[in-house]
Each structure stands twice: as structure tokens, then as C-alpha cells.
């Protein structure tokens, strides 16, 4: 019907192809969730990132999709969702409900994994950054949630790729 692009998926190889008269793109993906997927089932697919971080590796969770597709809901939970604290299990034990998104679940998992190692650590520091890519610009969502000033990405020999001015 006069379409100028064709999107096709190869489910057996988790590949999506976009064919346009001027170019062809092909990308692999790990998983696509249905609208009925629970927060718990989504987290079960990415929880290994939190465990890897507790083992000393850098970890990134990347949520991609068009505006209104549910990225914020998936990452945080429903509007107004709060993680509550409980004295059960110690003063820093957080209670996660079934509505919790990936970020609160990851934070709890990281600290559970670190404490389960039995290393006798009495104090630890975990750094986190939160970047949003919107209209090909980078925004610091910890410091600038209204996206008022874009950040720049750089590559420096010996330092690698970094975002200038990104908060932790």
C-alpha cells in the first residue's frame, strides 16, 4: 500500500530487519516482552546484570522503544511507586512489591548479592548514573530530569568513552 519501509523479524534468531529504499538495517535483540508481561518476569531476564555488578563487573540495562511504549513503567514501576523500608532483615532491607520496576528491583538485588558474599564488609559504595537518549541527545536523569541541557559524549585515549558532566 505504498509503504516505503518494511520491518521484518526472524524470531528464531532474534533479529529485526528494516528495509528502506535507501538503506537496510539489521539488529539482534535479546527479548521482546508482551504487554501482559509482569514486572517480575521482565526482571528475571535482566537480574543477571545486578549479580554481575556485585561480582565486580560494570553493568548496563538498556531500555529501547518508541514514546509511550512502557519504558518508564518497566524501569520504575507505576506512577508514584515507592520502595518502602522495613526493619525485617536489618535497617537497609527494602520491601519490593509485585509492581516494582527494574531499577528498584536491581538496587535491592545488588545489595542482597553483596551482603550474601559474606565478606564481612561493613561499608560499601555503589555508583550509579542514569542517562536518557532522547532525539539523539544525552540527558542526565539524576541531575536534570526535565532534560533542560544535553550532555556530550567523548572518547579519550586511555580513558575510553565517557559522557562529560554526567553525575553519579
Automatic annotation (TrEMBL):
SMART domains: KISc. Residues 1-168 form the Kinesin motor domain. InterPro entries: Kinesin-like_fam, Kinesin_motor_dom, Kinesin_motor_dom_sf, P-loop_NTPase. It is found in: Cytoplasm. PROSITE patterns: KINESIN_MOTOR_2. It comes from the Eukaryota. Keywords: ATP-binding, Coiled coil, Cytoplasm, Motor protein, Nucleotide-binding. ATP binds at residues 65-72. Belongs to the TRAFAC class myosin-kinesin ATPase superfamily. Kinesin family. This is Kinesin motor domain-containing protein. It comes from Tetraparma gracilis.
Amino acid at each position: 500500500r505504498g509503504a516505503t519501509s518494511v520491518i521484518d523479524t526472524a524470531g528464531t534468531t532474534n533479529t529485526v530487519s528494516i528495509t528502506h529504499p535507501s538503506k537496510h538495517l539489521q539488529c539482534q535483540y535479546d527479548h521482546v516482552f508482551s504487554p501482559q508481561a509482569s514486572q517480575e518476569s521482565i526482571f528475571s531476564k535482566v537480574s543477571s546484570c545486578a549479580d554481575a555488578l556485585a561480582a565486580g563487573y560494570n553493568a548496563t540495562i538498556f531500555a529501547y522503544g518508541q514514546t509511550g511504549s512502557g519504558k518508564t513503567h518497566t524501569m520504575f514501576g507505576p506512577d508514584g511507586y515507592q520502595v518502602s523500608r522495613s526493619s525485617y532483615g536489618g535497617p537497609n532491607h527494602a520491601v519490593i512489591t509485585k509492581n516494582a520496576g527494574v531499577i528498584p528491583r536491581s538496587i535491592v538485588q545488588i545489595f542482597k548479592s553483596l551482603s550474601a558474599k559474606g565478606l564481612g564488609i561493613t561499608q560499601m559504595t555503589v555508583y550509579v548514573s542514569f542517562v536518557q537518549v532522547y532525539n539523539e541527545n544525552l540527558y542526565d536523569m539524576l541531575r536534570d530530569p526535565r532534560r533542560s541541557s544535553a550532555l556530550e559524549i567523548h572518547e579519550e585515549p586511555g580513558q575510553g568513552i565517557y559522557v562529560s558532566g554526567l553525575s553519579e
